[in-house]
Design brief:
CATH topology of the largest domain: Dihydrodipicolinate Reductase, domain 2
Distance between the termini: 45 Å
Number of helices: 10
Strand order of the largest sheet: 8-9-10-7-11-12-13-14
Number of domains: 2
Largest sheet: 8 strands, mixed
CATH superfamily of the largest domain: Dihydrodipicolinate Reductase, domain 2
CATH class of the largest domain: Alpha Beta
Length: 343
């Protein structure tokens, strides 16, 4: 099997996670890495390729001089200024970290480049690759879950995070940069959104002058199929802890996600309490065996080599960004309802 040559744009922590995941797959060569701080690129090369990957501080020079098959791009979303389009124009498959941009215009520019070139584009919505998420999605697809009805989601953390994350021009805020995970899963399970209303504020970090983004947010969403969702995020949770949990109610099954990697399914076949004995309700706990990041890269590489369907493609990158941007717009407008399709 011919080795696939992979390049990295961005030498931060998340691309390090992806590099470790790729190391578990056969016939993969990390050939090059670019970072604006060349020392970080060199450290990345040393850590993941024993210094064999070529190092650049100019991503365009990397794309112009190193033969590659695919590129992983993980940058602050506000720093995505054409790297994906340039790589797609060279016929390179893309793995883009979320969110792919901070505006619909930028996201659609990437989508046009992907469609024009015909390359594959995986989006780093890693929670889609968790075993319970995959099981529920399959049940919704084959009809065994019945119709999706409602979702509650919570994304709770506590941290200052890097300087770029606290800058609305680079990171976009917690709602956009982090909570997009649960907003993406809401789209994944419930379908395309119709109307959203949201509130957000900075209530916990006012004493940090460079913290200029939201640390609490809550939204209510009505989907085109009339399903509804309530999603909240906060960066004021217990220190040194975090929680991402969801409840998804479908016509024939209820799913309680302890986190993306563990969920309890209750199979009730759409019956009311008066129509089914308690002991007749089936229960199953599903857990992810392994790493969702390894699943993500396996899905991406499988799509390149064998045509395996991507679990999160460019349409999802644009669609989920539209949703969080609509939520942010509603919050800025004091909770005025927004339609994602109109952004």
């Amino acid at each position: 099997m011919k080795a696939l040559r992979i390049g990295f744009i961005g030498a931060g922590g998340i691309n390090g996670v992806h590099a470790k995941a790729l190391a578990k797959l056969p016939a993969i060569e990390i050939a090059a890495v670019s970072n604006h701080n060349r020392a970080r690129a060199d450290a990345f090369s040393q850590a993941h390729t024993a210094g064999q990957a070529k190092v650049f501080d100019d991503w365009q020079a990397m794309l112009d001089t190193v033969p590659l098959d695919a590129v992983y791009i993980a940058l602050p979303p506000g720093a995505n200024v054409g790297q994906a389009e340039a790589a797609a124009a060279k016929g390179l498959h893309l793995m883009l970290e979320k969110p792919i941009a901070l505006s619909v215009d930028r996201a659609e520019s990437i989508e046009r480049a992907v469609r024009k070139s015909g390359v594959l584009c995986q989006i780093g919505h890693h929670m889609r690759h968790a075993a319970p998420v995959r099981k529920l999605k399959q049940m919704l697809t084959d009809g065994t879950a019945g119709r999706p009805l409602m979702m509650q989601g919570r994304f709770l953390v506590n941290g200052l995070f890097p300087a770029w994350w606290r800058d609305p021009e680079l990171g976009g805020g917690q709602l956009v940069e982090q909570a997009i995970h649960i907003y993406d899963l809401a789209r994944h399970f419930l379908g395309e959104p119709d109307v959203i209303t949201a509130f957000a504020d900075n209530l916990f970090h006012e004493r940090f002058t460079d913290y200029r983004v939201d640390d609490v947010s809550v939204s209510s969403i009505r989907f085109k199929n009339h399903a509804v969702a309530s999603l909240c995020a906060a960066n004021c949770y217990e220190p040194h802890a975090g929680s991402m949990s969801m409840t998804v109610l479908c016509e024939k099954v209820t799913v309680e996600f302890k986190n993306a990697n563990e969920a309890k399914f209750a199979f009730h076949d759409g019956k009311k309490t008066e129509e089914i004995a308690k002991e007749a309700i089936g229960h199953e706990t599903i857990k992810t065996d392994g790493s969702v990041y390894e699943e993500l890269s396996a899905n991406f590489i499988g799509a390149i080599r064998e045509g395996t369907p991507l679990r999160s493609g460019i349409v999802d990158g644009v669609g989920s960004l539209r949703l969080v941007l609509a939520a942010a717009a509603s919050a800025r407008a004091g909770g005025a309802p927004q339609r994602a399709s109109r952004l």
